Amino acid sequence: MPSLRVETPQRAYDAIVERGCIARLAEFVPPGAGKIFVVTTADVWALHAAAVERALAGRPHQVLFFPGGEPRKKMAEVETLAGQMVAGGGDRSSVVVAFGGGIVTDVAGFLAAIFMRGIPVIQIPTTLLAQVDAAVGGKTGVNLVAGKNLVGSFHQPLVVLIDPAVLHTLPEREYRAGLYEIIKCGVIRDADLFRELAERSREVFAQDPATVDRIIAAAVRIKAEVVTADEREGDLRRILNFGHTMGHALEAETRYDRFLHGEAVAFGMHVATALAEAVVELPAAEAARIHTVIRQYGPIPSLNGITPEKLFARLAADKKTVQGKVHFVLPAKIGAVKIVTGVDGRAVMDAIEAVLASYAALA
Ligand SMILES: NC(=O)c1ccc[n+]([C@@H]2O[C@H](COP(=O)([O-])OP(=O)(O)OC[C@H]3O[C@@H](n4cnc5c(N)ncnc54)[C@H](O)[C@@H]3O)[C@@H](O)[C@H]2O)c1
Ligand SMILES: [Zn+2]
C-alpha cells in the first residue's frame, strides 16, 4: 500500500495509507523514547482502543482524554493536557500520539509542538477529513474567541498512520463531509480520481475497501505533493482552497453550526464551478459533471435564509480579499485550476444566485 512522502524543511516523513497500519505504531516510536501519551476522545477510544493498545503493549504509555468539539479546541484544554503529562511523568523524551478526528490531531499536534518546547508527535487520524487533510502537513493549533485556528504552530509528525478500516464507525454525514474534500482533490489535480468518484459512488458509500483505500491515497498524495512543494511554490498550496472562499463565507454566515466544513466546501465548489464557466471558460459539460458529482455525495443542510448579498458581504471580510476584489480557485477543466484575482463582483453574485436557485428547485 502507498506511502506518500512529505518533505518539509522541518522534517521528511511518510503518510502511510494501509488497512491495519495502526498495528505498526511502535515501529515509528524513536529508540530511547520515554513515556507515550495517547491523546484521544472518549468516543473514538471506546470504538478503536484495541488497535492502539495492542500496538503499544509492553511500552509505558498513558491515555489522555480530550473532550472534543470545536468549542473545546482552545488553549485552556492544551494547558490541561500538558499538566496531565507532567503529572504522568512526561518529559523531553515523551512522545504524543494523536488518535482522533481533525480536532484531536490539531490539539494534540499543538500540545506536542509546545510541550517542553517541542516533542515528537505521531498522527493517527480517524475521520476521513483528518486522514486526507488535517493530519497531513504539520499545521496544528487551537481557536481563540476571536476566530478559528488563530494560535498554532507548524509541527510535522514522525509519521501519519492512515488506517481506512477505522472509518466504518464514522457517522455517514462526517464521512460525506470528508468525501467533498476528496472531490476537491479530483477537480484541482486528478481527473482519474474525479472519474472514480463519479463512476463508483456506490462502492464509495459502501466503503468497498479497494475503492476507499485508492481514493484516500490519491487525495493524500495531492496533499503531500502540495505540502512538499509549498516552500518553493507559494501558489500551489492555494489550489487546495478550491470551494473554500465561498465555503468559509457560508460557514461564518451560519455561525459554524449548520454546516460541517466539508458541506460548506461542497456549496463553495458549486459556486466556484458556476463562476469558472463565466470567467475561465470551463466547458459547460465539465461544469455539469462537477455539479453532478457534488450532488451525488449530498445532501447538504438547507440553505434557507442564505442570500447572495449576505454571502458576498462575508467575502469582503475574508482575509483572501484584496482591495474589495475577491480571488478564486477556478477549474479550467477537471484536473486543472487557475487562481483568478479581481473577479468581477457581479459575476460572483450571479454564480451564488444560480447555485442557490438550483438548490431551491430541488427542495
Ligand atoms: N491542520 C490542518 O491542516 C487542518 C485541515 C483541515 C481541518 N482542520 C481542522 O479539523 C477539524 C475538523 O476535524 P473533523 O472534521 O475530523 O472533526 P472532529 O475531529 O470533530 O471529528 C468529528 C466527530 O467524529 C468523531 N470520530 C472521529 N473518528 C471517529 C471514528 N472513526 N468513528 C466514529 N466517530 C469518530 C469525533 O469524536 C467527532 O465527534 C477542525 O477543527 C479544522 O480546523 C485542520
Ligand atoms: Zn477544507
Poorly predicted regions: none
Shape type: globular
Order of helices and strands: EEEHEHEHEHEEEHHHHHHHHHEEH
What ligands are attached or bound here?
nicotinamide-adenine-dinucleotide, zinc ion
Task: Please tell me about this protein's structure.
The structure is a single chain. The chain is α/β, with parallel strands linked by helices and 363 residues long. The chain has 2 domains: 166 residues, Rossmann fold (3-Layer(aba) Sandwich); 191 residues, Up-down Bundle (Dehydroquinate synthase-like, alpha domain). It contains 14 helices and 11 strands. Strands 4-3-5-6 form a 4-stranded parallel β-sheet. The protein has a 3-stranded mixed β-sheet with strand order 1-2-9, with helices on one face. β7 and β8 form a beta hairpin. The longest helix is centred in the middle third of the chain and has 21 residues. It is globular, with a radius of gyration of 20 Å.
